[in-house]
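Deliverable D5.2: sample structural annotation.
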Amino acid sequence: MLGENTLTSQREEFFLREPQTMKSNSILFAAALTLSAASLASAQISESRATLALTFEYEAPGLRERNSSGAYVSPVKTETENSWSVDKSRPSESKVDITEYFEAKQDAIKTRYGNKELLLDLVEEGVITSIAGWYISVDFDEQGLPVSIWALNQMGGAIQLDPDFIGFGETPQVVTQVTYNEKIQTFSSPTKPEKITPTHSGTGRHTYQCAFSINAGEFTSDNGGSIRLNIPLKTVKDEPGLWIPGAAKSTGVILSGKRTDIPDGFGGTRTASVLIDGSITFTAAVLINNL
């Protein structure tokens, strides 16, 4: 069900209306809109498997620690900078020869974050006991827009991940382009009863952008950013007004926040700022309830 009049009446009529008695109808339009949280409360119609191909990047010291004489210390520790001096002075000859050294290096470390890492974070959260058999799924509504993210198990079991662990924001920006054709043919003859044959077909695309967050495991709760998707659409036979997404890939995932398990260079961990980018791909969606 659509809410708060955030869609134009034309769009509501197009996507949700019942078939009308007409010979044919063709529609091509593009609409810019803002969907509210109520709009996304629509029924979950189709689902797609999602594959995360992300990395998170953080700063790390790039030098091995030295003592005041310039010798490396043991056990090995890392530093962002070192300073030391070497004194070759000869007081007996009234000769002063002191050289002071300074060095600095900071690295940027990239770490993979995919489905496996997300599932391992869910294990750490106590949401699941192991990653065996689990995969990530996204549900779409009747308009082909994403509404929820799930961890599903091949042997049975479903856990909704949004908004606590990973999720889309509540106010996406969407531009939709659709081409739709509908025909209802009525045929009868003296020897045959009346037969009504409706047919329809349509293709389209959502350009979709909204807030996006990953807060599972060692990511902190203030971690977030945005995601942008190009979602191809198609109609479903015998279901006018129902749109199913095709295979899609994000064109931008940019997040920032903090993670609490970053190596501190001393054998422990620290909380550090991270930047997350990469892509998320989605398989062509399939109907959930065999509509």
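Annotation notes: The longest strand covers residues 192-214. The chain has two domains: 9-59+109-287, 63-104.
The annotation will be released with the project's public dataset once the embargo ends.
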